[in-house]
Amino acid sequence: MDAPMGQLPTIAVAAGKGGTGKTLIATSLAQALCEAYPGRVQLLDCDVEEPNAHLLLKPAIHTEEDVGVPAPVVDLDVCVRCGRCAEVCQESAIAVIRDAVLVFPDLCSGCGACAFVCDAGAIEEVPRSVGKVHLGETPEKIDFVSGELAVGHPRATPVTKAVKQHIRADRVTVVDAPPGTACPMQETVEECDFCILVTEPTPFGLSDLGAAFETCRVLGVPCGVIINRLGSGFDGVERYCDAEGLPILAGIPQDRVIAEAYSRGETLLSAQPERGEQLLEVFRDTQRLSAKEALGDA
Ligand code: SF4
Ligand code: SF4
Question: Among 6, 27, 54, 86, which is least packed, fewest CB within 10 Å?
Fold first, then answer.
């Protein structure tokens, strides 16, 4: 059944660590949603340091956008060496040492504060490329957006932000978040309607799930868990979720068929099409849970 028009939700898929199957779940969820929202699904790959959703969804890329961050360039003939730029910089990316003004581009966030406080007008902001955003469409007509951080650039968040700018209110958006709980993950998950945390039933999975759950709690984003590769015999994740009131949305078993499909660059739905209904039920649960949370906050 086709779903009604209006503001459609944005669901992040995150994991406290890499290798849990996060991208497999995100891409397969986007494919499953095509049944309920034909032509109105988008997938954002915000794992900009190691984007690989395209390997599974195989989009045709039609547009490439450069992501630039303004970086200060100082005209030493105009500069009066007052030091205000260095005082205001929160990143220690600019320093005034005797007659020299040194800029450290890799530390610079491009906030523009130094140019703003420079009364002498000695600072010009020059765009510096930090990555790219690729736009395309998959064979299932999923709008595909993927960020790619420039090699050697240490700051992922400008590229993550550039990817998120493509979120459309008339699309159900699935966002593949970077692994871990550092700034790029927080930037990705922030303001999403729900976050699905993918974990595996091991002590390591449990430890990283706790960190990811705590991050979502601080960000105020409701979340639930998918346990991937069930069958190890370790039940610590279930016990933790029960104790914390963290809903378990689904379990995906350890299955050779899924592993072999993944190794060929195929999604979960390619290996087991019947999982589509399970993932649609996960999506319905995310909507019920976020509505419940919103009512609780009201
Ligand atoms: S604020 Fe402007 S004038 Fe002052 S040291 Fe920095 S660049 Fe030079
Ligand atoms: S743009 Fe911001 S981060 Fe970069 S040097 Fe200026 S004040 Fe520092």
Answer: 6
Given ligand 2 and candidates 88, 89, 102, 125, which is best to mutate, with the most ligand atoms within 8 Å of its CB?
Answer: 89
Domain count, the chain: 2
For residue 297, pLDDT beyond 80: no
Specify whether the CB–CB gap between 98 and 172 falls below 8 A.
no
What's the pTM? Answer: 0.87
CA of 8 to the centre of ligand 2 (A): 36
Contacts of residue 209, Cβ cutoff 8 Å, sequence gap at least 6:
16, 197, 199, 225, 237, 240
Model pLDDT, residue 294:
75
Cβ(85) – ligand 1 distance below 6 Å: yes
CATH (domain of 84): 3.30.70.20
